[in-house]
């Protein structure tokens, strides 16, 4: 086995709030001890804030499905470097600064791959099978015309890391809790505190929100922070660690997550939206499932990619798609910030937020769309 990576690690990538379900994949891959040693900020739930009096707090120890009740909030540069270094310790060679630029598949599913090195020369390797985990690079879908437009509306994000000097003063009771602020129905803000004292802050919304701010990324983010009382109190006088970065129209998908000689994992399959922090969990669980199937395949065991890979991947994506859609439609605001919440329903929703989106005993997994829509309607009808 070899890993081919275009950049060199550590490198920045966004995706800093993990979900408990990804811990199972990290554990099976043998990464947990090294990650524990790094002492990342533990995450045991998530808090959604509409206003200082309208708050919805989920704890992962109160959830429908069994499994991990905690995870981490991580600067991805450090987190991903640990994963890569652990692969190195398992004697898996990693070719850094090596970009996959051409793939030739053969009838027996093996392939020849051209890799462009930093100095521009082409290095050739052969593979029995390819796992494409190239994220936003989307190597195989782009190379072989498999890309498909996402049915989600385009959204944008602007984010940075702050030296969070006010955290302990302003959030004395729970300074390290991840918090999602509802800015307006379609705009929200993540605050992800790290154990190194910095906090990741990002605004996400539709393009028209961002078009109202027309200065530099730094000035735009400052203006956004200044326009929100609680955010301004915590971050208004904090130093940004890097000039805010912008990402837009990130949703993408492809028809099939597998083909002759390859399987796609993580963002290459489908990436929805940062709301609910599903990206790393869907990436690690798809990689976990793909790894099992590739081992079976290389051992000449029969593999049903459609049933054993595509269907479970889509199952997870579709549950999160409903949650993302219904967040932006406002239905999840209605549910999260309703009065007199039913404990069992809270546990079922908490399970989805923890990433347990394959447990069909949970009605918010098995019948996600109907369940969310009818609960929101019931709340609107009875609490109007
Ligand atoms: C604004 C925003 C906020 C987000 N927040 C969260 C969050 O809080 N939690 C969460 O779970 N997810 C979040 N995500 C999603 C998260 O970024 C991704 O889902 C996650 O990083 C996917 O991991 P991956 O391994 O598939 O791809 P990546 O992490 O992108 O890794 C892919 C790797 O492939 C390499 N590569 C690309 N092309 C080539 C090539 N041609 N040759 C060789 N190597 C190549 C890249 O250099 C990269 O290192 C967010 C996304 C956005 C847009």
Question: Beta-sheet strand percentage?
Answer: 15-25%
Distance from N terminus to C terminus (CA atoms, Å) equals 59 Å
The radius of gyration over CA amounts to 21 Å
Biggest sheet features? 7 strands, mixed
The side-by-side strand order for the widest beta sheet comes to 4-3-13-14-15-12-16
CATH topology descriptor of the domain at 156-248? D-Amino Acid Oxidase, Chain A, domain 2
- Tally of DSSP helical segments: 14
Tell me roughly what share of residues is in helical segments.
Answer: 25-40%
Number of strands: 20
Mean pLDDT: 96
Could you name the ranges where pLDDT drops below 50 across 5 or more consecutive residues? none
The level 1 CATH classification of the domain at 156-248 is Alpha Beta
Task: Please describe what this structure looks like.
The protein has 384 residues and is an alpha+beta fold. It has a domain at 156-248: D-Amino Acid Oxidase, Chain A, domain 2 (2-Layer Sandwich), CATH 3.30.9.100. Helix content is 36%, strand content 24%. The protein is built from 14 helices and 20 strands. It has helices at residues 21-28, 32-37, 76-89, 139-143, 167-170, 207-211, 217-226, 229-235, 279-298, 305-328, 331-336, 343-353, 363-366, 368-383; strands spanning 3-4, 41-43, 45-51, 54-59, 71-73, 94-95, 98-105, 111-117, 122-127, 130-132, 147-148, 156-163, 179-184, 187-193, 198-205, 245-248, 252-254, 258-259, 262-264, 270-271. The strands form six sheets. It has a seven-stranded mixed sheet with strand order 4-3-13-14-15-12-16, with helices on both faces. A hairpin with a 5-residue loop joins strand 7 and strand 8 (111-117). Helix 9 packs antiparallel against helix 10. It binds flavin-adenine dinucleotide (FAD).
